[in-house]
Design brief:
The chain is an all-alpha fold and about 525 residues long. Helix content is about 60%, strand content about 0%.
Length: about 525
């Protein structure tokens, strides 16, 4: 089973709403400025080069007997060209008629030619953003919504933009641009209740990341008790305090248990709270309580389940002495849906069960299976290779936490970048070129953030693998000693445990490597103990 530091790390990175490790970027990362209107080239005297409008070279001027002159400054760019008001009106009509593709190009052209002080400028940004989102370009739309929130030129548009941004946070998004630069830096005095609650929650998370729990509590105290953000804030505070205490009090376990039954949270959030209860009880050696908490995790029907959840339950049943049930769960983890999961502890637990039942050769084979299956990864670790290129370690790192979120955002940008090509003709060259540059820059930054998180995550997975491999080597040594241990005089085979008769509703059959989703948690292995004991 995982040690306490790993339990705390799992609780910290499990839920999406707890401390997203967004990479810090420049204040305007992901928000490229609107391209300036093209400037006209100033007339140049005859004989000047194409390098600009600078004065003749000082040496040349001296040779000609004339003093060198200072550089000539360029003329200021002309004001934006006026466009007919009908362009904006026709674009809005196209949007409300359900034609966002026809609205996007004219709206962008109107924004390029309209000064930012225009009363309808923010509305133009808003409807351009909504058109892009409707076309499946959510990141581009979020960029314009974030501009509205940062510029705050029109108080009537701002609440609508924030509501639209909040809806985008349920999917992969730019955490720095939306969570930190928008909601984490808002003036909270004028926002509607729901949007204000989300902003308070995000600003409280920012304070928690820097270790200021008192300021975070100030933000969290302003959340309505009936809001989902209030429950999420409680979970964030509990995880923060769990990292600070060595022996969690009973009250903390009760608080996690309460959150696991809070209907305001999503199913995923309630499951994470139940897992927190189970892991804390396991740490306290309350095996029955831990098993009960694992039972509170509710998964969708016909879902194959979580491999890590089943493995933790198998460890709990092993600690309870229910070896056959634990071995049945390990059989579940051999199902095709779990074969790519990174579970090195699975082989260690199987070897322990066989050892306790005195099946020494199967125990030795189970222990060797770990080093055989992960031989390439172990070789990469010991050879100090680039661990991010190892397939198993990379897959394990991408399965959870901030690395998973970063990988999903990179995939989103890849998908939307390909989708952008469909609109090359209808958008026009200017909007299409602008969005192409926007996605290229955002993708480069997203890949940088992903690579940084991946490098740290694969190191943690490699550490998990090395610890499991070390324990397996020790297990092989112990089993070897048992294989060649002399049987003392008077020893006899331990009487097999009497198994309860199967009821008519139960079925026992020889396992033939066939798996069904609705049976995965019900497997039990029939295996007899071969242990012997000494007679007094």
């Amino acid at each position: 089973m995982t040690s306490r530091p790993l339990i705390v790390a799992a609780l910290t990175s499990a839920a999406l709403f707890v401390f997203p490790p967004a990479a810090r970027a420049a204040p305007d990362a992901g928000l490229p400025p609107m391209p300036p209107a093209p400037a006209t080239t100033a007339a140049r005297p005859a004989g000047t080069s194409d390098a600009g409008t600078s004065a003749p070279d000082a040496g040349t001027a001296a040779a000609a007997g004339t003093p060198a002159k200072a550089a000539v400054t360029e003329a200021p760019p002309p004001p934006p060209q006026k466009v007919a008001p009908e362009v904006f009106d026709n674009a809005l009509k196209a949007y409300f008629d359900g034609k966002p593709r026809d609205a996007a190009g004219p709206l962008y052209a109107w924004l390029q030619a309209t000064p930012r002080t225009d009363d309808n400028y923010a509305w133009g940004q808003y409807f351009l953003a909504k058109s892009l989102i409707d076309l499946g370009l959510t990141h581009a739309g979020a960029t314009y919504l974030a501009r509205i929130a940062r510029e705050r030129t029109n108080p009537n548009v701002l609440p609508r933009a924030l509501d639209a941004l909040k809806e985008l946070t349920d999917r992969p998004h730019d955490e720095v641009m939306i969570d930190e630069q928008v909601f984490g830096a808002l003036d909270l005095g004028f926002l509607p209740e729901e949007t204000g609650a989300y902003a308070h929650y995000q600003q409280g998370l920012v304070d928690l990341r820097v270790g200021n729990e008192r300021w975070a509590g100030t933000h969290f105290s302003k959340l309505p008790e009936t809001s989902a953000e209030a429950s999420r804030a409680k979970f964030a505070l509990l995880v923060t305090r769990l990292k600070q205490v060595k022996d969690p009090p009973d009250e903390m376990v009760k608080d996690f248990l309460t959150l696991s039954e809070d209907e305001k949270l999503t199913r995923e959030s309630r499951n994470e709270a139940a897992l927190a209860v189970a892991r804390l009880r396991y740490e306290r050696k309350d095996w029955p309580g831990a098993l009960e908490a694992y039972g509170k995790v509710k998964l969708p029907e016909l879902d194959p389940g979580r491999a890590s959840l089943y493995l933790e339950e198998a460890w709990t049943r092993y600690k309870l002495g229910d070896l056959r049930a634990s071995l049945g769960i390990l059989t579940t983890l051999d199902a095709p849906s779990f074969r790519d999961e990174f579970l090195p502890d699975k082989y260690l637990l199987r070897a322990l069960i066989f050892r306790d039942l005195c099946h020494y050769l199967p125990a030795k084979r189970a222990a060797k299976e770990l080093t055989r299956r992960y031989a390439d990864s172990l070789e990469s670790v010991r050879g100090r290779d680039d661990l991010s290129q190892d397939v198993r370690l990379r897959r394990a790192a991408n399965a959870h936490g901030g690395t998973k979120r970063a990988a999903r955002f990179v995939s989103l940008l890849d998908l939307e970048g390909e989708r952008l090509g469909r609109y090359a003709g209808s958008f026009g060259d200017r909007l299409f070129g602008h969005l192409t540059r926007l996605y290229d820059l955002s993708h480069a930054e997203a890949v940088r953030v992903y690579d940084a998180r991946l490098a740290e995550a694969v190191r943690q997975e490699a550490d998990t693998l090395l610890r499991a491999a070390e324990q397996v080597r020790l297990m092989e040594y112990e089993v070897g000693l048992k294989l060649y241990e002399r049987v003392k005089k008077g020893a006899q085979v331990v009487a097999a445990e009497e198994e309860e008769m199967l009821s008519p509703a139960q079925v026992a059959f020889r396992f033939d490597n066939e798996y069904w989703n609705d049976e995965l948690k019900s497997y039990r292995v029939r295996i007899e103990s071969r242990c012997i004991e000494e007679t007094p």
